[in-house]
Each structure stands twice: as structure tokens, then as C-alpha cells.
């Protein structure tokens, strides 16, 4: 039996766009099951988020699933959910250390000795409270601008990291 770590490593996170506003998580899971017919065993697909896109109108979902099943959907680039044809792509996230918050390495490989960010809340950059207790305004640790948190596409530094590390042309950045 696979360990919990192996199970997590074998997952791929996909983004599914252009769904109608009345689409449910169950409809998405059913459409995925129908699209990957021969890979039902061991699929354990989970819809994590289902939100309206920034421009309004359609929904965007993040879905985790077995890598083998994800490859099947990614090769098609599109899938049908109810009456809508939806775009499918992999969610790419630059590697980031949870100790120093710098990109390009993980905590295990961190050689940073000056700045240990462990215990600092990513939303506001302060210590001493929990997520539920935070009443501070969001402030990005990367660009030092209020209004968003680090590691989001609203941050120009994160967007550039994403482009540099993922090798994605600027015109394809969401």
C-alpha cells in the first residue's frame, strides 16, 4: 500500500475553466469520470475550489487527481461538462521554501541562515497569531504592497517568478 506521501506526490492539480455558473462539484467529478472512462480505478478525483473567474460570468475549478488520469485530460485540452466545453490545463506553481519564503528550493534544501520566516503568517507578514485571528490587511512579503498576499498572480514579482521558473511565455500567464 502506498504511503500518504507517495499518494500526494502522485497527484496532479488541474484547472478547469469556462463552466457555467450553475455547475456543481458533483457534475465536474461525473464529467471527469466520463472523460477518462478506462481509468476509474484509483482515480480519487477531488474538486477543491469552484469559484467565479475574475472577469465574472464563468466558473473556474481546481481539481486534484491521479497523474495518469490527468495526462489523459491534459492531452485533450478540453472536456465537456453538461452543455459547456471547458478548457483544461495543469496548475503550475513555482517551488517555494516555507522557511525563508524564497523561490527555487524547498525547506529541506534551504541554506538561508539570516532570515527564518517559520511562524510568520503569509497573509500579513507578522508573528503571534493564527489564520482565524488575523485582522490585518493583506500585505505581500515579496513586493511589500498591501492588497494581496505573496504567491498570487496579483503580485508582479510572483508573476515574473512564475514565468522564469515555469518557462511559460508572458502571453500565457493567467
Automatic annotation (TrEMBL):
Gene3D superfamilies with a match to the protein in the record: Zinc finger, CCHC-type
Keyword vocabulary terms for this entry: Metal-binding, Zinc, Zinc-finger
Residues of the CCHC-type domain: 96-112
InterPro entries associated with the record: Znf_CCHC, Znf_CCHC_sf
One function term, GO molecular function aspect: zinc ion binding
UniProt keyword Zinc, yes or no: yes
Name by which UniProt lists this protein: CCHC-type domain-containing protein
Organism of derivation: Phaedon cochleariae
